[in-house]
Design goal:
The protein is of the alpha+beta class. The protein has two domains: about 5-180, 2-Layer Sandwich (Formiminotransferase-cyclodeaminase, Chain B, domain 1), CATH 3.30.990; about 185-290, 2-Layer Sandwich (Alpha-Beta Plaits). It has helices spanning about 15-30, 60-70, 100-120, 140, 150-155, 195-205, 240-255, 270-280, 290-299, and strands at about 5, 10, 35-40, 45-55, 90-95, 125, 175-180, 185-190, 215-225, 225-235, 260-265. Strands 1, 2, 3, 4, 5, 6 and 7 form a seven-stranded mixed beta sheet that branches. Strands 9-10-8-11 form a four-stranded antiparallel beta sheet. It is globular. It starts with a strand and ends with a helix.
Length: about 300
């Protein structure tokens, strides 16, 4: 099997396509790496790029993207709905094929040291790559109450915010979280209302940190005049996407609204969609081999 690692960096830019073009071009110059998807949102002012490659070069592609973002994105002037702390905000590595999580941890830590040393950007390691237990959860590193502006003041002063790599000083590129994790689904649900307080109440109900579903992170936003429940689903095998959607429907009904539409940010594992289809169709005898394309792949 081909050895494949996925990298899904999030950049604090969703309004200038020429900037994203330049970052994508930097990634594509690395041998063996392929960009699969780019997803930008102007209200969030954020872009997610998905690319894959072998473990030997995927880190080089991520470094090239981070360096280009640092050159082109000035966090002193960046504003958007999504929490952020740096130009290249979050850079996770995901094992896809014939690669272990430990190998992704090694890639993440090696990249973190390089970014800190060569680019002078403070680096925090998270999820499986974390060096400290209080940094496993990305929400502990980038809470809504401590974004770029707060880190610019506290890094180098407050011990809690000492970086794992790089200088204890924040420049215009901000700080960055680099990690290794399982596949994540970035998923947003739009409601039939412009009342952002309803989205915020629903987000509190569904997210694990405030008593909701395990492996769900959520917050309520106003995007394009519509209330949005913005989510990261960190383990769709244990908390499937259909369960999250149904809970949002029930919570929305309490406030006299409903789900208008939903969207993916970036890509999604096929199994998550298949599981949702089987659940909604109530296919009790379903198994993946009943899909024609899957059977053909076996031949």
């Amino acid at each position: 099997m081909k050895r494949i690692v996925e990298c899904v960096p999030n950049f604090s830019e969703g309004r200038r396509p020429e900037v994203i073009d330049a970052i994508v071009a930097a990634i594509e110059r690395i041998e063996g790496v392929k960009v699969l998807d780019r997803s930008s949102d102007a209200d969030h002012n954020r872009t997610v790029i998905t690319f894959v490659g072998p473990p030997e070069t995927i880190g080089d592609a991520a470094f090239a993207a981070i360096a280009r973002a640092a050159d082109l994105i000035d966090m002193d002037s960046q504003q958007g709905e999504h929490p952020r702390m740096g130009a290249a905000d979050v850079v996770p590595f995901v094992p896809i094929s014939a690669v272990t999580m430990d190998e992704c941890v090694h890639i993440a830590r090696e990249l973190g040291a390089r970014v800190g040393q060569e680019l002078g950007i403070p680096v925090y390691l998270y999820e499986a790559a974390a060096l400290r237990p209080d940094r496993i959860n990305l929400g502990e590193i980038r809470p809504r109450s401590h974004q770029y502006e707060q880190k610019k003041v506290d890094v180098g002063v407050v011990e809690k915010w000492a970086p794992d790599f790089g200088p204890a000083k924040v420049g215009k590129a901000g700080t960055i979280a680099i990690g290794a994790r399982a596949p994540l689904i970035a998923y947003n649900v739009y409601l039939t209302t412009g009342d952002v307080e309803i989205a915020q109440k629903i987000a509190r109900a569904v997210r694990h940190s405030s008593g909701g579903l395990h492996f769900v992170k959520a917050h309520g936003l106003l995007v394009g005049g519509k209330a949005q429940v913005s989510m990261n689903l960190t383990d769709f095998n244990k908390t499937p996407i259909y369960r999250v959607v149904e809970m949002i429907r029930r919570e929305a009904a309490r406030y006299g609204v409903s789900v208008e539409s939903s969207e993916l940010v970036g890509m999604i594992p096929q199994r998550a969609l298949v599981d949702a289809a089987a659940w909604y169709l109530q296919l009790d005898n379903f198994e993946p081999r009943l899909i024609i394309e899957n059977r053909l792949m076996e031949e």
